[in-house]
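Per your request, structure below.
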């Protein structure tokens, strides 16, 4: 799959503990990046980074319990990416194929767009806009 930035992560470097997000999607974690198993693939070695979001638009939704100031921090971080890249972020109700932001005890995000999947972005560093923007960069397809 094409990414904004392509870099293969060696399989042996992935944390092989399987995790499941709140929408039931399986993934493995590598640092603060999540790699999802494609919907139509059962091969446990097929975890991949995603592609580019359609129409240069990322649909965004927030966990219900996310405070207004935290939502604004996310919007500010997304705005920085819009200014730098022209990629747009639109806030929508929870549906399908969107970036879903929630509070967590760690910062992490899926890499790129995954058709049929929601990108669950977990943020712990709410006072650090650069860190939030970093996680949004993963959602756009950027890897370390």
């Amino acid at each position: 799959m094409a990414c904004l930035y392509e870099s293969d992560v060696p399989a042996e470097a992935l944390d092989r503990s399987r995790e499941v997000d709140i929408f039931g999607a399986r993934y493995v974690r590598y640092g603060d990046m999540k790699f999802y198993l494609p919907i139509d693939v059962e091969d446990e070695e097929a975890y991949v980074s995603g592609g580019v979001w359609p129409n240069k638009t990322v649909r965004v939704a927030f966990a219900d319990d996310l405070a207004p100031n935290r939502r604004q921090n996310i919007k500010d971080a997304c705005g920085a990416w819009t200014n730098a890249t022209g990629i747009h972020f639109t806030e929508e109700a929870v549906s399908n194929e969107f970036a879903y932001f929630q509070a967590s005890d760690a910062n992490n995000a899926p890499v790129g767009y995954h058709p049929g999947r929601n990108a669950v972005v977990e943020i712990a560093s709410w006072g650090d806009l650069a860190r939030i923007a970093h996680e949004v960069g993963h959602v756009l397809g950027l890897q370390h």
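The chain has a mean pLDDT of 81.

Regards,
D.
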